[in-house]
Specification:
The protein is α/β, with parallel strands linked by helices and 272 residues long. The chain has one domain: Alpha/Beta hydrolase fold, catalytic domain (Rossmann fold). Helix content is 39%, strand content 17%. It is built from twelve helices and eight strands. It has an eight-stranded mixed beta sheet with strand order 1-2-4-3-5-6-7-8, sandwiched between helices. Helix 1 crosses helix 2 and helix 2 crosses helix 9. The protein is globular, with a radius of gyration of 17 Å. One of its GO terms (molecular function) is catalytic activity. This is Pimeloyl-ACP methyl ester carboxylesterase. It holds the Pfam family Abhydrolase_6.
C-alpha cells in the first residue's frame, strides 16, 4: 500500500490493482468507509486497466473520520495530483458514488469519465425506493428479515450497528449462497464512520449535482439490488444522461454475482 497526502495533511492510503502503461483509473469504494478488501480485484478489471483504489477517510486503513462525502471529494483531487493526472476516469461503488458525483459537480474539469456502480439513487432521482416490492418477489425469509431491519430503527451504538449489518446482508445479493455469504463478511465498518460520511453536506447537493456539467457517465446496476432499488437507479441514470447497464440476477456487488458481465461492461467503458 502507498500513501497520498491530502490538502489538510491527512495521509490517505491507496493501493493499485493491475499494471500497464495507460494512466490509471481511480476507484472510490462504498460502505461508506467499509474496509476496501470487499472490492477484491473487481472481477479482474485490473488486467484491462490499472486501478488506483482510494481508501476513504474512516476506513480501517486510512483511519480518522470523513469530513462528509461532499468535502471528501477533494481527496480524489489529491490522488489525481499525486499520480500526475490532469484528468481521470473515476469508478465508484455504492456510497462512494455520492463522493464521485461531488467530484463531478465541484471539479468538473478533472473527470474524463465517470462509472457509478450500484448507486443509491432515491436521494438524487426523487423516485421512491421499490425495495419492498423486490423483497416480496424474492419470497425468502432471510430477505424479509433483512428488509425489516433496513426499514427499522437506526442502530444506536456499534453493537446494534453490527447486528443490523449482519441481518441486512442478504438484501445486498440476488442470491444467498455460500459465495455471497462469504463476501458479506469481508470489510469492517463502524457506526461512527458511517455517520461522519453524511455530515456537513449542502442541502442543495442533489440540485448542484444535476445542474453541473458532467463527463460521459455509466451506471451499472443489478435487477435484484434491494439496497438501491431498481426504479430510483433507472431514474437517476436518465437524469444524469448516463448509459445504464442493468445486470440480471445481480444485487449490489456485481463483481461477485456477475463477474464476467461486470468486467466486460467496465472494460468496454474504459476503452472508449
Amino acid at each position: 500500500m502507498e500513501h497520498v497526502t491530502a490538502v489538510d495533511g491527512v495521509r490517505l492510503t491507496v493501493h493499485t490493482i493491475g499494471d500497464g502503461d495507460a494512466p490509471p483509473a481511480i476507484v472510490v469504494p462504498g460502505g461508506p468507509a467499509r474496509g476496501v478488501e470487499y472490492l477484491d480485484d473487481l472481477a479482474g478489471l485490473g488486467a484491462d486497466r490499472r486501478l488506483v483504489v482510494l481508501h476513504p477517510r474512516g476506513t480501517p486503513t486510512t483511519g480518522g473520520r470523513s469530513r462528509g462525502w461532499w468535502t471528501d471529494a477533494d481527496d480524489v483531487v489529491s490522488v489525481a495530483g499525486a499520480l500526475g493526472l490532469a484528468q481521470v476516469d473515476l469508478i465508484a461503488h455504492s456510497a462512494g458514488t455520492r463522493l464521485a458525483l461531488a467530484v463531478a459537480a465541484r471539479h468538473p474539469r478533472l473527470l474524463s469519465s465517470l462509472a457509478l456502480v450500484t448507486p443509491p439513487s432515491d436521494w438524487l432521482s426523487g423516485v421512491a425506493h421499490d425495495g419492498a416490492d423486490l423483497a416480496a418477489r424474492r419470497g425468502d425469509p432471510d430477505v424479509d428479515a433483512a428488509w425489516a431491519s433496513l426499514t427499522g430503527a437506526e442502530p444506536a451504538d456499534d453493537a446494534a450497528f453490527q447486528r443490523a449489518w449482519d441481518s441486512e446482508a442478504p438484501a445486498g445479493y440476488a442470491a444467498w449462497t455460500g459465495i455471497e455469504q462469504q463476501h458479506a463478511g469481508v470489510g469492517d465498518m463502524s457506526l461512527a464512520s458511517v455517520r461522519a460520511w453524511f455530515r456537513d453536506v449542502p442541502a442543495d447537493a442533489a440540485d448542484r449535482i444535476l445542474a453541473a456539467a458532467r463527463p460521459r457517465t455509466l451506471v451499472v446496476s443489478g435487477d435484484g439490488d434491494l439496497l438501491t432499488g431498481v426504479a430510483p437507479v433507472r431514474a437517476a441514470a436518465a437524469a444524469l444522461g448516463a448509459e445504464l447497464v442493468e445486470l440480471s440476477g445481480c444485487g449490489h456487488y456485481p463483481w461477485v454475482e456477475r463477474p464476467t458481465e461486470f468486467r466486460a461492461a467496465l472494460a468496454d467503458w474504459l476503452r472508449r
